Amino acid sequence: MIKLENVTKVFPSKKGKDVTALDDVSISVNKGEIHGVIGYSGAGKSTLIRCVNLLESPSKGKVWIDGTDLTKLSKEKLRQTRQKVGMIFQHFNLLRTASVYDNIAIPLKLLGVPKAEVKERVMKYLDIVDLSEKKDAYPSQLSGGQKQRVAIARALSQEPQVLLSDEATSALDPETTNSILELLLKINAELGITILLITHEMNVIQKICDYVYVIENGNLIEQGSTIELFTKPKQPTTKKFLNTISQRKLSDRLIDELNLEGKVIRLTFLGENTGQPLLSKVTQQFYVEPNILTANIIELKNGIVGNLVVHLIGSEHQVEHSLSFLKEQGVEVEELGVN
């Protein structure tokens, strides 16, 4: 449904040194899936998502929506194709002097949608976002979450095949963020809309994404299913993002001290293994003493991941056998403090 093929975006600089915001980036989003792009400020996330509907034209590469290469279209054909792509933003972009109803209706009228159909669509999508009773209210009378719901209804009213989300929850408190994410899941499930979002918040990826891309300095440095990245992160930046939502990080000093006797191990459990008493079995079978340092369970859209950081005390032989046993049970094992 969405495909970026070797996209590079370079911004000219008056100081003489051009800025490469995206460098040979390729992504592919299948119909009906939710993909997320995560990175720190300045990583290139916003440029990437603006290239999807050609709000920014790539310096190199191709952009495909539903099999059509947007970079080859005339202005008129591009305008028509963009109607397949809805977009929501961090700051809502509502008309302050227009009611909720008119904020959704005005773009439809400008597109030439018949009056009767305009009313039908406005009420249909206000109902989907649970704001029917606010149709006569003005933006100043709404909370941040309600404003974002209006923006989502406005995007949906054009009945797109794709929805782009540009940091749509960044200005919202955690509870409101969760409600908006639940709404996006509902839209994806009930309307079949493909969603591509950008964020700097790992909890957004955790809650709704099927697949994730990690971007840094304009480069895609890691990608995979959400479960893969949560269980087997490779890049330091990915691990830093994971540390923001799970108690994964211990100080190097503490790890070095503990490694003087036994080993400090990160264990990652997936699916049914999260409920198995594997540490108890290790204690009984291999005579090692596990001391749990940190532990948590993370619920993803498509599964459950458990994380334990454990200090295993015992002879080197016993510890190695216990680690082999855990690996055989499908547990990801990472020794900490090993250079």
Describe the structure.
This protein is an alpha/beta fold and 339 residues long. It has two domains: 2-242, P-loop containing nucleotide triphosphate hydrolases (Rossmann fold); 247-335, 2-Layer Sandwich (Alpha-Beta Plaits). It has helices spanning 45-52, 75-82, 100-110, 115-128, 144-157, 174-191, 202-208, 226-231, 236-243, 252-258, 278-286, 316-328, and strands at residues 2-11, 19-29, 34-38, 60-65, 68-69, 85-89, 162-166, 194-199, 211-216, 219-225, 263-270, 289-300, 303-313, 332-335. Strands 6-7-8-3-9-10 form a six-stranded mixed sheet, with helices on both faces. Strands 2-1-4-5 form a four-stranded antiparallel sheet, with helices on one face. Strands 12-13-11-14 form a four-stranded antiparallel sheet. Helix 3 packs across helix 4 (115-128), helix 4 (115-128) packs across helix 5 and helix 5 runs parallel beside helix 6. The chain is elongated. The two termini are 43 Å apart. The mean pLDDT is 92.
